[in-house]
Amino acid sequence: MALPDWTLCVFGVASVCGGFYIYRLLSGGRRSAWNRGPLAELMARTERPLFWIAYSLYARTKLGYVFYKRQMKKAREKYPSGHSRTQPTTINGIKIIPVPVLSDNYSYVIIDTASSLAAVVDPADPQSVQSCLEEEGVTLEAILCTHKHWDHSGGNRALKRLHSSCRVYGNLMDNIPGLTHPLTDKDTIDVGTKLRFRAFYTPGHTVGHMIYLLDGRVFGGPSSLFSGDLVFLSGCGRMFEGNASTMLSSLDTVGSLNDDTLLWPGHEYAEDNLLFAAELEPGNITREQKLQWVLQQRGQRLCTSPSTLAEEKQYNPFLRSHAQDLQQALGLQQNHDEDWTSYRARVLEELRRRKDIYKSR
């Protein structure tokens, strides 16, 4: 059935506006020329409709995949060796290699060195991940996908074609590309003799977002959390498919983990996140020390991962909705008829609102 001319016009305008807006949507408010001038004012006035147009196009149509492929091509041209310089972390026969992909994403190759078997988290650029696997001389056993967004899941099918026995894990609700093994909350995944992951269901950023905890007890070291877009160094992901209460519950899952857990996030957002945190809590000494270290790292294009959850609990505002100093900085106080969890969700909502419009200087 042919669509009427006016419908085609509306769809065309929506596609152009939405596609144009996708970059800003996914960049999380980082510094760019996009954040200045008349265009920024126009976008601010039309934030909600353009947001939903762009997000729907990116997450639910082929336009999102086309944008991802273009993004990957441009990143390979701009950063032939990756956007950041990384170093592997080796602990008692476990090797974790951050692989810089796209413009600021990280995939992670995790290797059981005794068996030469590996898992990879969020292989956004299959070419970069495959190069790492070949360089290490290991066999890919599992892909652990945190969520459906193309900048995390885009390489699943390509790697699966190269490694036919590889299992692809993720949440069924998120429509993960190439999914072979659907997960639910607290499911476990074993790779080799020393890699045991526990999956946690953490909705909010997407409806089916998962995080993966590598159990350190198996190899006698600290656990490692691969957090996707739930938690970053001093930050958290946007609430695309959930409300503040949902996101708070997911963040509390992270907060319940051991302090010595290593945090491996899905993006290199450390500098911008810490500058935002500085505006909220300028007197936070731990945050200021971390910022100075991050500035040194980024000045040399060095990766800032991992941090530890002990550190994050001291300076990450999104894990500190319970902190009175932060609540006061936001100008919030608990209402008499408001329970503690609802109040903390309101604090988180205000934090996220401010971060969404934040422009670092």
TrEMBL record:
Transmembrane segments: 7-26
Keywords, ordered alphabetically: Hydrolase, Membrane, Metal-binding, Transmembrane, Transmembrane helix, Zinc
Cofactor: Zn(2+)
Keyword Transmembrane tagged: yes
SUPFAM superfamilies (UniProt xref): Metallo-hydrolase/oxidoreductase
Residues annotated as domain Metallo-beta-lactamase: 104-267
Family the UniProt entry places it in: Belongs to the metallo-beta-lactamase superfamily. Glyoxalase II family.
Protein name stated in the entry: PNKD metallo-beta-lactamase domain containing
